[in-house]
Amino acid sequence: MPKSAAKPGKTKPAKNYQHPESTSPMRPEVGTQAQFKKKLPPKKYRYDDSLSPALEWDGQNPARERGEALVREVLDAKSLEEAKAAATKLKAISKPFLNWSGKAERLSFDVPTLPLFIHERLSTKAILETLKGHKRDKQTDMFDLFGDPRHSITDQVLRAYEHKDKWVNRMMLGDSLVVMNSLLHYEGLGGQVQMIYMDPPYGVSFGSNFQPFVRNRDVSHNDDEDMTREPEMVQAYRDTWELGLHTYMTYLRDRLLLARELLHPSGAVLVQIGDDNLHMVRCVIEEVFGVENFISEISFRKTGSAPSDFVPNIADHIVWYAKSKEQLKYRQLFRNRTPTDERGISLSSSAELDENSESALFQSVSLESAGLRSGDLNEPFEWQGRAFHPRAGAHWKTGHNGLRKLGAEGRLLVSGNTLRYKMLHRDFPVTPYTNLWTDVMGAVNQTYVVQTNSKVVERCLLMTTDPGDLVLDPTCGSGTTAYVAEQWGRRWITCDTSRVPLALARQRLLTATFDYYELKDESRGPVGGFVYKRKQNNKGEDVGGIVPHVTLKSIANNEPPDEEVLVDRPEIKSGIIRVTGPFCFEATIPAEMQWEESETQTSAAGTISDANASYLDRMLEILRKSPVLRLEGNNTVTLKNVRPPAKTLSLSAEAVVDATASGQKATLDDAVQEAKEKSGLALPLSQKPVAIVFGPENGAVSERLVYEAAKEASAKSYTRLFVIGFKIEPNARLLVEKSAEAIGIPATYVEITMDVMMGDLLKNMRSSQIFSVCGLPDVKLRKSKKANGTQLYEVELLGMDVFDPITMEPIHRAGDDVPAWFLDTDYNGLCFHVSQAFFPRTSAWENLKKSLKGEYEDSVWEHLAGTVSEPFEGNGNKQIAVKVIDDRGNELLVVKSLTEAK
Distance between CA 65 and CA 61 in Å, rounded? Predict the structure, then answer.
């Protein structure tokens, strides 16, 4: 396709919001974890004691001693006030509560306290500047665009979490419980979050809700065949829990306890839930936050119709609780008032005034208030030759002078023997939202099965926060809360256990465009507030962010009307395209840890250490229950007879490949192998043992772990080595690929889904959903043209190879058949800076392309939807990194030196 030149004319600059007055603790980057020594012990959280509602003080009740102590306080009280205080405490712990399996036996729970390492820095502005290449302003500091303070490795290792950095928004991979615990105890964020929005699984079907990544959006519920026919299917949105509803209640309570600790005293938690378990979820939240802090239960329409044998369910709910009702931050939202909102009749039926127009509508309102008052408020009032009396025990809302003023303004109305007030439609053209939202259905085009409606999140955010406030969503999903928070100038943190939702959310945020709301003080950013103005259109209708509120009092007293600020209507600054500000991708699972501490499988005596034993036992049990390794092209490998080795220094397990179950023909050298088998000199290949080594629980596979495991596996004549981990360091991955020629044994890296990190909440995953074999990106780095004497380079993603562990033959996927790939043009070996981001399968950049039309050539956007990068300069580190995200959200990294460019 020929390149088209950028069109001349006025272009719109791309800007983003910054938060200069906000800070966050200095956090280490992923390349420093081998030296990171600031370990913290697990944190124990205790549940609040509760007595039986029947006050059954038997020996098994953990609150018995506390209850008896409070009774003694009541009996020994020296004053009535002391007795009342003790009695109030006794009443509080004896309130009714919801019980479920395992609750009484579990009086506390431990959460690992893990540091959060920065894996990626992302910035749409930085990507746009990189695309300008040598044409960009050389004064632009790319590190500032990424929000990177460029701390030395020494500072990151020795002074992490001790100093403050400028705020950048944050996206995290990890269990929400572990993430929130880290925010509390590594970073001290307790009491700093203004709103927490949770959209947990609804806990309804306890089956799998498969959701396609890109192509097929309609997938049969709980149907394994859909998954095996379409490799793109992912289980990012499963509603599956090991113990059903009982585990679901525990899941919620644990996270709500930490959420309460994170919330600011004026903050609130809002939990989205369906009808089925709404009643139980409210009980759980009230146990943590207290029934006295209930604010509202909002119902919103999610569908126009729903098939049902009984009354169709067309609504979901938001359950809203404050940390402290007395201190809650609340901003009233309004919607435009419509003629159907009025309960009156037309003001005039004259020919020149359309009686159906909004300006002609009014509502008949009482002029009386209960109670007796002094003066003429209780006296009869004469109007149009009639005397009107307030009803018995009531008084006029305004005195006679005020009533006469209302009459002169045409605001009085006779209804029978009663005088009433005409409240015109135009007096207050908006009306408050209630807790029933029927107008959000179809407000957005939902791409994913359980994607939260952005309008719902937007209203919750606007009601409970101000610009610059911090919002947390521990259930990221497709990133709706982060997207809405970015749109409205709030700071945000979001996390998810699955890589797939985070991949979706990163794409959504990087390519988003927003209105630029005018700031009161540009130097302070959103925290200084948005600008609101009163504006009217040609019809005289108020369309700005400030509307008048004419009241009976203002007319009667001849006062200027009050004004209401509509927080969802700030002034929009034209001529500016706003893009997402810089944000970090972090993880509680670092990319590498010190091998001697975290990866040694045995002690000097050859026994597994106590600290590692439970993790290895659990991984072995998972592998026995789910022995299927998933490949591309609907291929699988099945392991059997998984067991610990008799004696080992580095290996975790051994097993046998079941070639028959895998649907693969086991071949090495067919003729030689067959002859040996017939002569009895060799076991059939499908019966030969393979070696297995697990990466660390809170880290990723290092190069040394691969080397030691491969060396031992080769010495013991295993046929191949499976390296199984949550993440792998680039050098370790390269060694895996070269293991056959370097060490003498073929090796295969297998990625574990992060779901297994959820402890007792391990989801009942079907068939081949836990372990998947990941490919290595095949990239070509070459020299491009020269610009002003400067050598430029470009990268092409040729594809991705997934290796068959049976035949060791690669299965190739073309470069244009991956969901996303990122390029760091100056990789420092610590943190990946996304300089260019490519989404070959989608038109993700289309909105930004249209918004910035004329500033970039069309060829630039074609590059970002393809497999070849835009030309870039070589920088200080003289190496680049390419990261490919596959259909399951796995991140595959390859690093190349600029000296390799041809």
Answer: 9
Calpha distance 424→408 (Å, rounded)? 15
* Beta carbons of 403 and 413 less than 8 angstroms apart: no
Which amino acid appears at position 887 of this protein? D
* SS3 (DSSP) at 441: coil
Strand, coil or helix: what is 320?
strand
Mean pLDDT, rounded, of the chain:
80
Least confident of 23-32, 502-511, 753-762, 833-842: 753-762
What is the identity of the amino acid at 62? P
Residue 135 binned pLDDT confidence (cut-offs 50, 70, 90): low
Distance CA 874, CA 791 (A): 7
Banded pLDDT at 8 (limits 50, 70, 90): very low
Extended strands (E) in 512-669: 513-514, 546-549, 562-565, 577-579, 583-587, 628-630, 636-643, 653-658
Per-residue model confidence (pLDDT) at position 550: 92
User: What is the distance between the alpha carbons of residues 482 and 459, in angstroms, rounded to a whole number?
Assistant: 14
According to DSSP, the residues that pair with 748 across neighbouring strands are: 722
- Who contacts 431 (Cβ-Cβ below 8 Å, separation ≥6)? 334, 335, 336, 337, 341
Q: Which residues contact 360 (CB under 8 A, 6 or more apart)?
A: 346, 347, 348, 353, 354, 425
- The helix or strand, by DSSP H or E, that contains position 885, with its residue range, turns out to be strand 879-885
Confidence grade of residue 608 (pLDDT, cut at 50, 70, 90): very low
Residue 359 has pLDDT above 60, yes or no: no
Do the strands 334-336 and 430-432 form a parallel or antiparallel pair, or are they unpaired? antiparallel
Q: If you write DSSP's letter for every residue of 177-237 in order, what string do you get?
A: HHHHHHHHHTS--TT-EEEEEE-----SS-S---EESSS-----TT-HHHHHH-TTEE-TT
| Three-state secondary structure call for residue 757 | helix
257 pLDDT higher than 80: yes
Cα dist from 554 to 365, 407, 585, whole Å: 15, 14, 53
Q: Map residue 611 onto helix, strand or coil.
A: helix
Span 333-342, mean pLDDT?
A: 77
Residue 633: pLDDT band (50, 70, 90) is: low
pLDDT at 798: 92
Rounded to whole angstroms, the Cα distance separating 453 from 484 reads 10
**Which amino acid is residue 607, in one-letter code?**
T
The reported pTM is 0.84
861 — pLDDT class (breaks 50, 70, 90): confident
DSSP 507-551: HHHHT-EE--BPBS-TTTGGGG-B-----B-TTS-B-SSEEEE--
Q: Is the pLDDT of residue 349 over 50?
A: no
Report helix, strand or coil for 721.
strand
In angstroms, the Cα distances linking 858 to 4, 190, 510, 613, 868 are 6, 47, 19, 57, 14
- DSSP class of residue 669 equals S
